[in-house]
Amino acid sequence: MAAFRGGGLGLALLLSLCGLGGGRVQAADANFEAQLIWASNDKNSPNPKHKEVDAEMRQRLGKLPLKWANYFEVTRKSFAVADGGTNRVVMSEKSSIEVKRLDALRVQVLLYSKKGDVCTKQTQPMPKGEILVFGGESPNATAWLVTLKRKN
Amino acid sequence: MKQDLQLKLQAYLDGELPAGEGKTIAALVARDADARAMLAELTHTRSALAGFESDIKLPETREFYWSKIAREIQRQETKSPERTAVSSFFFLRRLAVPSGVMFALLLGVLVVKQQLGFDRRVAVVETDTAQVDAGTFTYHDFASGTTLVWLSYPAEKEFAESGSADTISWE
Question: Which of B147, B153, B161 to mutate to test binding with chain A, by most A CBs within 10 Å of its CB?
Answer without folding.
Answer: B147
